[in-house]
């Protein structure tokens, strides 16, 4: 089951959500920070296709995507995609 969060940045006012994270039953969503349109985008990938492939932002087609959210080392890094300040995330629900 995946988790959806809303993002809110106190520094610049950027708000976005819901952002889909983690796995559903068929696809896994990986949140990435797009440096072109300065938004968080969720890249869907089939659970069967692990690993990194070619990725592009579904919104603007930009290729400069940085991993966002849990970095896999226990740290919760949720920088605002617009200004880079640490943004607040709030739980928005589950998806599957
Ligand atoms: Zn911001
Ligand atoms: Zn983009």
Kindly estimate the percentage of residues that lie in beta strands according to DSSP.
Answer: over 45%
**What is the CA-atom radius of gyration, in angstroms?**
13 Å
- Calculate the terminal CA-CA distance, rounded to whole Å: 5 Å
Low-confidence regions: none
Helix content: under 10%
Mean pLDDT: 85
User: How many E-type strands?
Assistant: 8
Pairing-aware structural class of the strands and helices?
mainly beta
Bound molecules: zinc ion
Order of helices and strands: EEEEEEEE
User: What's the tally of helices?
Assistant: 0
Main β-sheet: number of strands, strand sense, barrel status?
A: 6 strands, antiparallel
Shape descriptor reads globular
Number of domains: 1
Write up what this structure looks like:
It is a single chain. The chain is 0% helix and 49% strand. It is mainly beta. It has one domain. The strands form two sheets. Strands 1, 2, 3, 4, 5 and 8 form a six-stranded antiparallel sheet that branches. Strands 6-7 form a two-stranded antiparallel sheet. It is globular. One zinc ion (ZN) is lined by residues 34, 36-37, 57, 59-60, 62.
